[in-house]
């Protein structure tokens, strides 16, 4: 029925993908553990040091990089988990047809393990990304407000996007003349 040489070639290529998928999934799991540590360090010390530095542009670059890494984990790990689920099922079902239950058992074990690991890493990436977005938004707002306060105090403040410019003071002679000083 299905004996085409292209099907055999496709099966061979897909079977070679299982090992790289497993290694990539383990690499992403290690990255998730490191990212949890980085998140804890940020909360304990990192965010306050960025707040004191006042380097908004530098912080925005770092924030973008870290959020992209979390988003990458949240998207890629479940895909790799799905690949790790489907790749061993073909040989496992073929082994079931031949009556070799031990091969099916191994294939099912790998399939479920990769699914769980992919989902776990994806959840960790998603949660870290959401927490970072909230922390970083709060920090950037505070840094921008602090920078604006310093500019107003020094007299070099220029209105930012959405901020109305300060009105010029109305002088006593202008009031008597009925004209405000602009």
In short:
The chain is mainly alpha-helical and 182 residues long.
SSE map:
Layout lengths: L4 H49 L2 H42 L3 H54 L17 H6 L5
Helix pairs in contact: 1-2, 1-3, 2-3
Membrane topology: Multi-pass membrane protein
Protein name: Flagellar motor protein MotA
Subcellular location: Cell membrane; Membrane
Protein model, in words:
Belongs to the exbB/tolQ family. InterPro entries: ExbB/TolQ_transport, MotA_ExbB_proton_chnl. It comes from Pseudomaricurvus hydrocarbonicus. This is Flagellar motor protein MotA. This protein has helices at 5-53, 56-97, 101-154, 172-177. The mean pLDDT is 83. By secondary structure, it is mostly helical. Helix 1 (5-53) packs antiparallel against helix 2, helix 1 packs parallel to helix 3 and helix 2 (56-97) packs antiparallel against helix 3 (101-154). The chain is elongated, with a radius of gyration of 29 Å.
For the sheet with most strands, the description reads:
none
Net shape = elongated
The figure for the number of domains is 1
Structural class: mainly alpha
Question: What keyword list fits this structure?
Answer:
single chain, 182 residues, mainly alpha, elongated
């Amino acid at each position: 029925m299905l004996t085409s040489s292209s099907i055999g070639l496709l099966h061979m290529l897909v079977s070679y993908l299982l090992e790289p998928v497993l290694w990539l999934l383990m690499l992403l799991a290690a990255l998730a553990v490191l990212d949890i540590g980085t998140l804890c360090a940020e909360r304990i010390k990192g965010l306050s040091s960025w707040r004191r530095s006042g380097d908004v542009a530098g912080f925005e670059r770092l924030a973008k990089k870290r959020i992209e890494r979390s988003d990458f984990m949240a998207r890629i790990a479940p895909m790799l988990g799905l690949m790790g689920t489907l790749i061993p099922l073909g040989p496992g079902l073929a082994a079931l047809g031949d009556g070799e239950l031990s091969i099916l058992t191994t294939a099912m074990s790998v399939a479920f393990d990769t699914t769980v690991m992919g989902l776990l890493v994806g959840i960790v990436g998603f949660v870290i990304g959401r927490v970072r977005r909230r922390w970083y938004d709060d920090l950037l707002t505070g840094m921008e407000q602090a920078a604006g306060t310093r500019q107003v105090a020094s007299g070099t403040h220029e209105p930012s996007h959405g901020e109305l410019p300060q009105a010029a003071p109305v002088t006593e002679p202008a009031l008597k003349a009925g004209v405000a000083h602009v």
